[in-house]
Design goal:
single chain; 113 residues; mainly alpha; two-stranded antiparallel ribbon; 58% helix; elongated
């Protein structure tokens, strides 16, 4: 089963790679990106698309950083609070329930089972 999953993962990775490779080969024409004040960037279309994707990921990650910091801070405070509230030393162990004596039935007779 493990070998089958490994093989399926490799097939999926190869399919993604060859799809992106074919995309890159089909989009080698130059594209012009016009910026402000008359500046422009001339590059193959695949590089323009890759640059736009990379910038989008970077903006998304930068937008999430304040939330990550806030959640990290809350998690540290909760961990410090739980450590302060827990008594020092080993935690008490609660005993497990004892199984019924052998020969007795655990089936409720009112259900007819």
């Amino acid at each position: 089963m493990k070998n089958l999953m490994w093989l399926l993962q490799w097939i999926l990775k190869a399919a993604i790679f060859f799809t992106l490779f074919a995309f890159a080969l089909n989009n080698q024409d130059d594209a012009v990106v016009h910026f402000f004040f008359g500046t422009q960037w001339r590059a193959p279309l695949v590089l323009v698309v890759l640059a736009a994707f990379t910038c989008g990921v970077a903006v998304g990650v930068l937008g999430m950083v304040p939330r990550w910091w806030r959640q990290h801070k809350v998690a540290r405070q909760a961990q410090a609070q739980s450590q302060a509230e827990s008594p020092p030393g080993p935690t008490p162990v609660t005993p497990l329930p004892t199984p019924p004596a052998s020969g007795t039935s655990t089936v409720d007779p009112s259900h007819g089972v």
